Amino acid sequence: MSIAVPHGGPVAAPPPPEPTPAEPNYLNHSYGIWSWLTTVDHKRIGILYLVSISVFFVVGGLAAGLVRLNLLSYNSALLTEDAYNRAFTAHGVVMLFFFLIPAVPGVLGNFFIPMMVGAKDMAFPKLNLASWYVFMAGAAFGVWAILTGGIDTGWTLYPPYSSRSSQSNVVPGVIGVFISGFSSIMTGLNIMVTVHKMRCPGMTWGRMPLFVWSLYATSLIQLLGTPVVAITVLLLGVERVAGIGIFDPSIGGDPLLFQHLFWFYSHPAVYIMILPGMGVVSEIITCFSRKNIFGYHAVAWSSMGIAVVGFLLWAHHMFVAGISFYAAMLFSFLSMLVAVPSAIKVFNWTGTLYRGSITFQAPMLFTLGFLVLFTIGGLTGLFLATLGTDIHLHDTYFVVAHFHFVMVGGMVLAYMAGIHFWWPKMTGRMYSDWWSRVAASIIIVGFFLTFIPQFIIGYHGMPRRYPNYPAEFQVYNVMSTAGASILGLGYLLPAFYLTLSLFYGKKAPANPWSATGLEWQTPSPPTVHNFDHKPVVVCGPYEYAIGVDQMGRGLPEPPGPGEAQDPASRSGPTPPPGPQQKETEVVG
Amino acid sequence: MSASHHSPVLKHHFEDLGQQHASERLGMWMFLATEILFFGGLFGAYTCYRLWYPTEFEYASSYMNVKFATINTVMLITSSLTMTLAIRSARIGDRAGLYRNLLITFALGTAFMVLKGFEYAHDFHEHILPGAASFGGQIKSNAEAQGIDTGKVRLFLCFYYIMTGIHGVHIIVGLGCILWLVQQTYANKIPPENYSTVEVVSLYWHLVDAIWLFLMPLLYLAGAGLKTGGGH
After folding, report:
1. What is the ipTM of this complex?
2. Tell me, which fold does domain A37-569 have in CATH?
3. pTM
């Protein structure tokens, strides 16, 4: 490459300092608030979602902070009992409906599904924008309900308390959940049609990245589950407003029917929350192990297995609510069955790590945290699926800890991993490697300290949702609140260094992690139409062993442990001409 | 992108019209799956209570206006036929036929809603209402005379109003879509190669029609054999 070129030779000339005019990309092709609010570009819509759910994460986090502060003392340190009810309901409603459900599908799914399948956009760009507006409308109702007095029913909204007795803002909250549900349906429908119809040549189902598979499974649940909860909360709202209703025991209605209909969605909804996280983890774990994923088909099909089996076990939330013994046995069995595909995934991720060339950048640290925490969360789920132990553990802090291990330890860590993994692609900037590793470590430590004590007090019988508790549990609650403070600090750090990276971060190369997916074949940040030429896929999604991407081109040198501080300093967007040698053994 | 064969109705992010139409159709089918589960929750709840309280549900159902419902059923089925004929008109490029079929469909759907309105007015007049205070009239006194639990009669009426109400909202949305198709035809946006726009709306319209075909027997015919009814 050292041929002397007179001048203007584009090949070997070193890049001139910096002040070249910026490449046209999706961020700079138009400016102004209006160009964002009317955009139909899936990437910009992903950013809109990112900004809005970050706000809701803060709101939900503040509510959680109130709850934890109040539990510092065994006789309510801070809030009245009524205010405490409203605080934990606000935490649950905001975190579940306005953060966890839209988090990965709304942000990373919108941004990367079209790029991963080699399309210019989602199948229905306007519907995509509409989904964001519908989401914001629903969230506005939800936040309004919380700010003007709150809801005191818990996020599950069980009647007849919620329909007849509660003195709080149930109706705007219910409207918020109802409306934002349609946003979820729209996103799911869009992703499904995109995956079916918009794949580029060569992108067969067996070559799709596992992130796409997992979001496809998620979308299936969103599409088939959400309408059921929509009609259920609609009936609840009618019952509360008009005084006529279907769950009202005074006219022969059955509150248990509400629970069945509610959990028919809301149990699969936890798979809406966790499946995308599993997809993110599958992408990252193979990239940072520099190995092909172990058991591609097993991981892909276990996503579908979770989606299908996940629909059949809702009544395990009702073991002590008075359902028939035989039904309870069946639902207990089915609940254990869903652990099988989840375990298949964990085993395959572990198999991928085995003898890989692992490096510990922030995405990988978050992912390893996910692996441990999700496994603990999943295994404690089996305690709760067992009929006998569930009678002891039902509605205790054991359930709270289990749920948070899966949702926070699993999903939030996976979301953070995904944001850190794709941040260079989304913004074109590298964030501070050292600070991101610190943040990942703090979050994992803080998480353990917050929720391990909750397993213990739950096992000893402390019920959830109570503001007061016996004094002997105080030490555990203080530990948990201390852990929550560390966790909160851990969440603050990314807010700072990610924001700073936008202004001071080094320019990201096209493929900073040397990953194989099609999204890394675009510049960082991508151009408006993603690909200059229509991509043609020639091989599987994770050919790390032979070092080629999905278009069969060689990968750039991966960030090794020595130079890991600075992936941005490595060779730019042009990959080496040929496939690279790989020393590790090929497995899978 | 080959600019040589570029239809004006092709959206920029699709390769060709085939892909665009396949996406639209698949999207609508998936939306219909959503709709079926939306109503599925209601049908499931109805089934529970119908099995628990068969006598009360049949009694309450006998007060429903079968005559109006039958006329409405005939009109909706006919509108499904004209909707399908509209697809054919669009496909062969018969603009006049497309207008005619769309407008007939629209008229039948509107007539359905008008008749439904008359039926609601009649129910209000007769106090066939689920609220604790508004429930009354003959349906209440007869039930008390026969020893039928009025609470469960009111439960049936809850289902009646919620199910027909939500179905009515779907009809109105469908009517809006048909008007939009008329406007699109006027704006020359539905050339023969883009007939699938009409087809997509028709899929929705057929689903709304099909749901009515389930509502009709569940709500109106359940008690049609009883003599105790309002005598319609």
Report:
1. 0.91
2. Cytochrome C Oxidase; Chain A (1.20.210)
3. 0.91
